[in-house]
Structure formats: structure tokens, C-alpha cells
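Whiteboard transcription, Tuesday session. T.W. wrote the C-alpha cells on the left side:
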């Protein structure tokens, strides 16, 4: 059995092992060196956020039993995808596929902010009243299904090797927990890390209630895409400790931090908090009154 076959056969165990290991490390870090004070208790939020993770895992395994690695193995067997068509060496195909899939996820993230119907789903992620490692895993099941379909398409088009898919999945889960962590990094360390990977302070800006701040720093793993496409923002105007997390008008914990409320949130109300393609007249008025904002 070669290495790729071993990875394919043990993919669920590999991913679960890394998930639990990173979860424990970041949870301990949050306990020992938190960046912000919590608004709600861990028990209240984690029971719902992790409950949503369990539900999403069941949905994905029921709908897509082969998961992303199965699609990668099938594409390789059929010779589908750019990396297979041009016979790119394995040592080069793996990092190219990982970086390309990270770019696809960045584009997907921008898309779910730009399309009103998709923002309905994605605001489940943003509506969390606190910000910690479990925020990085709370997504509506319908968004998870959409994300899987986009990932499958990217794998087939790229011809991503099985190993690249597993590495990408592990990195995505690990960095999502890290950059959503309520952890304190030194300013110097944060500044250096931002050139390579998304840090908690960098991504926290994206969870601000302010529209222009929410529509920045879309990356989960690599920071290059936000810098290249002009969506990078260094800090929130109110500072890391003064900024408000969540979505304006959605501050009822029963709506946004209970499992039933999260599942129903996309189907409630109008998209009055939709941001990218909507002129924010209230923000424009505030800026006109204070040109230094």
C-alpha cells in the first residue's frame, strides 16, 4: 500500500485526530491568554456551536459518503483535471493544489458576502455574539453542502491529488480554529505571522458589526489574497478590545446562539444587514460628520 492509499483509507481518523489536537491546544490558549472578555458562558455557546458541527458532519457523511478525498481519487483514476492532464510532478502538484484550493475558498467567502441569498446562510457564522475557536466551525448545514459542492468542482478541475486534499482539509480546519481563537498574540509576532497566515486579530476584524470592516480580511489560511485584491484591513477602528462582534440588529442570544435559532436564522426577516452591494447611508452620514473615521 503506497502513502496515498494509506491516507485515503485513514482520512477520517487523520482529520479527526488533527481536529481534536488543535481544538485542545487553542482552547487551552484561550483559557490562559484570552484577548477579549466573553459576553456569554462557554457552556451556553459551545453546546450550540459544537452541536451544529455534529449535525453538519452527519449531513455531509450522509450526502457525500466518499467526501472530498473520494472525489480526488476518482478524478485521478479518470485522469481528470489540469494537474493530471499536464502530468505535473507529484512534488509540485501537491503544493499547487493546496494553494489553488485556498484561493477558491477565498473566492467562495467573498461570494457568500456578495449574493443576498447566500449571505442569509453565511450570517449564521457572523451572528455569534462572542468570538472563539468554535465560531470557526459554526456554519448553516445548507452552506456546508454548498461549500462541499464548490470544493468537489475545484478538485475535479484542478485534478488535485488525494494527499493535497487531505493536507488542505487539515490546514483549513486548523487555521479556522486558530484565527477564530480568542487568543492574545504579541504585536510583533502578529505582524510577522500576518505575512504568511491569517491571525486571530486579523480575522476578528472580519467579524465586526461595521459593514466595511466585515467586508475585509476574507482569508482563512493564506493572507495573500486579501493583500492582492485590496480587501486587507489591518485593525478595526474601535480597536481589538473596543470593536463589537456580530451583526447589527441580531443581538438576542436565543436567536443567534441557540441551535434552533441558528438553523432558522437564514429564513427570518429581510436582508437589512446585507453589506457588499448596498450603500450604507448611515455609515456615510457618520463619515461626513467625522471625516477622520
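and on the right, the sequence the group agreed on:
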Amino acid at each position: 500500500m503506497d502513502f496515498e492509499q494509506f491516507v485515503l483509507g485513514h482520512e477520517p481518523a487523520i482529520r479527526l485526530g488533527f481536529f481534536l489536537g488543535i481544538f485542545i491546544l487553542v482552547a487551552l490558549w484561550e483559557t490562559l491568554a484570552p484577548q477579549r472578555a466573553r459576553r456569554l458562558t462557554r457552556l451556553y455557546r459551545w453546546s450550540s456551536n459544537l452541536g451544529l458541527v455534529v449535525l453538519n458532519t452527519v449531513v455531509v457523511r450522509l450526502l457525500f459518503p466518499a467526501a472530498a478525498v473520494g472525489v480526488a481519487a476518482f478524478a485521478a483514476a479518470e485522469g481528470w483535471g489540469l494537474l493530471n492532464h499536464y502530468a505535473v510532478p507529484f512534488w509540485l502538484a501537491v503544493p499547487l493544489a493546496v494553494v489553488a484550493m485556498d484561493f477558491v475558498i477565498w473566492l467562495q467567502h467573498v461570494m457568500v458576502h456578495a449574493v443576498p441569498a447566500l449571505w442569509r446562510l453565511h450570517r449564521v457564522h457572523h451572528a455569534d455574539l462572542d468570538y472563539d475557536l468554535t465560531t470557526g466551525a459554526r456554519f448553516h448545514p445548507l452552506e456546508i453542502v454548498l461549500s462541499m459542492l464548490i470544493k468537489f468542482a475545484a478538485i475535479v478541475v484542478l485534478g488535485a491529488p488525494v494527499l493535497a486534499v487531505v493536507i488542505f482539509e487539515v490546514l483549513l480546519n486548523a487555521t479556522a480554529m486558530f484565527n477564530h481563537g480568542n487568543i492574545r498574540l504579541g504585536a510583533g509576532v502578529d505582524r510577522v505571522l500576518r505575512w504568511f497566515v491569517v491571525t486571530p486579530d486579523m480575522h476578528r476584524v472580519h467579524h465586526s458589526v461595521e459593514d466595511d470592516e466585515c467586508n475585509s480580511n476574507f482569508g482563512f489560511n493564506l493572507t495573500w489574497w486579501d493583500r492582492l485584491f485590496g480587501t486587507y484591513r489591518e485593525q478595526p477602528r474601535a480597536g481589538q478590545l473596543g470593536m463589537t462582534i456580530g451583526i447589527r440588529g441580531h443581538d438576542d442570544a436565543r436567536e443567534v446562539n441557540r441551535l434552533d435559532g441558528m438553523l432558522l436564522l437564514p429564513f427570518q426577516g429581510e436582508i437589512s444587514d446585507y453589506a457588499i452591494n448596498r450603500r450604507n447611508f448611515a455609515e456615510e452620514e457618520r463619515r461626513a460628520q467625522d471625516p477622520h473615521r
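Someone added at the bottom: The chain has one domain: 3-289.
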